[in-house]
Amino acid sequence: MQMLTMPDSAAAKKLYDKLKLAAPDATILFDQDCRLAIDNQHMLDELEIKLDSDVKVDEKMPAAIQASRQWHPEDTIIKTAHTRLGGNQFTLIAGPDSIESVDHIFAMADAVKHTGATILRGGSFKPRTNPYSFQGYGEAGLKAHRAAADAFELDMMTEIMDTRDFALIDGYTDIFQVGARNMQNFSLLKQLGAQQKPVGLKRGMSATIDDLLNAAEYILAAGNPNVFLIERGIRTFDHQYTRNTLDIAAVPVLQKLTHLPVLIDPSHAAGAHDLVAPLALASAAIGAQGLMIEIHDHPKEALVDGAQAITPAELEKIMQQTQAIRLSLKEG
């Protein structure tokens, strides 16, 4: 695609309307400001449209154009009832991997609130490697999660795996999570793009940076601008000591390429509770705009992924250290 930067929004809107009228089925994007994107120069030639000399034409644009910095130079800031995500904000998403009981999620919500987090995570529908493993409590889990989030004035974030579950989950959650295994579930991405609640999109375990950006583009192209990206480690040749390899360089690379907020999930990258803290601190140092961390008061008793869960006390310490790192970088 190529991008046209018009002298002002009125000129951009005029050209957009003219192109849509002449070629209603063509891909024509308008950012409601002064930028248009079209398939190629041939469209203008075929329609015999001459551009004025003050129109800037960028011939080579990334495939994920709406996710790109060229299309949207300013950082996207996502606002919810309790959270500002993106820009200079540092957002903490925390909670158990799975909703286990009403009492437990309330206890975890209390702990999450105490650390300064604003988003309570937890799964009620769990994608598991083995079909016989615990798959989550479904709607009962969603109800408990919603009640706990409301009780402690937190936003609720939970995973969606299937378009068939959309209406049910939409009735409870504030933020949708797309897990690594569903990063390229294009029907699901389109569904989430057709509504306006924020979507946390995790990078697939074998996905490239461009794969992740193109997945985000599906949501943006369908009309939802409220997307944030989560690096959670990728598969490499060595997985003996960590569950995945955290691509720490993905943070500055993505922040150069896209305006979307970039967070890190050190829990899934590590796969071991003693590695969560150093990866979380490295994430803060590299400039991540937030963290997504699994906690449990008794990790060894957790129904899912107890090996990578840390205690609320450990999370509180991590957040204190993270704040110190960010303050040091700001002062430096």
TrEMBL record:
Residues 86-323 form the DAHP synthetase I/KDSA domain. SUPFAM superfamilies: Aldolase. One of its GO terms (molecular function) is aldehyde-lyase activity. Pfam families: DAHP_synth_1. GO terms for biological process: aromatic amino acid family biosynthetic process. Keywords: Transferase. This is 3-deoxy-D-arabinoheptulosonate-7-phosphate synthase.
